[in-house]
Amino acid sequence: MHIWVDADACPAVIKDILYRAAQRWERHLTLVANQMLRTPPSPWLHAVQVPRGFDVADDYIVQRAVAGDLVITADIPLAAQVLAGQALVLSPRGERLDTGSIGERLAMRDMMEELRSAGIDTGGPPPFSQSDRREFANALDRLLAGQARAAKA
């Protein structure tokens, strides 16, 4: 399992959790962003800078993620694309997205986009909290532990 991170919008505290988990579980982790990123020195951690442009980082991840890989993203269209390729998806808030829930999430995203384009202030996501960080760390640990058990079986 390779871990791919849609890193442009990923909170720094989540990246730190991912760095430690990748090293502990010995999983390759690649951060993909349109800006230069630095990672701690480790053979498990990689950063890729893609050119600026609409969905360039997303396209890079979609082209490389394979079935069983894990993608960390809050981008619902990206999540839908990698789920179609049988990758696993975890949001930075610790929510596991799957083929059963992604359709509803896409519909909600589209509806909110229509409201915003009509001039309606829909607000945004709540500020990232300590409980979000904890939820993510717990969800990531459960997922990686489950993968490790499945590999041993």
Description:
This protein has 153 residues and is of the alpha/beta class. 46% of the residues lie in helices and 14% in strands. A six-stranded mixed beta sheet has the order 3-2-1-4-5-6, sandwiched between helices. A hairpin with a 5-residue loop joins strand 5 (88-90) and strand 6 (96-97). Helix 1 runs parallel beside helix 5 (130-152) and helix 3 runs antiparallel to helix 4 (102-117). It starts with a strand and ends with a helix.
Provide key terms for this protein.
six-stranded mixed β-sheet, 153 residues, single chain, alpha/beta, 6 strands
Q: Count the strands?
A: 6
Count the DSSP helices: 5
Uncertain runs are: none
Lateral strand order in the biggest sheet: 3-2-1-4-5-6
Q: What's the SSE pattern?
A: EHEEHEHEEHH
Main β-sheet description: 6 strands, mixed
Based on secondary structure, the structural category is: alpha/beta
Kindly provide the radius of gyration, computed on alpha-carbon positions and rounded to a whole number of angstroms: 16 Å
Mean pLDDT score: 92
The coarse overall form would be globular
Report the β-strand fraction as a percent range.
Answer: 5-15%
Level of helix content?
Answer: 40-55%
N-to-C CA distance: 16 Å
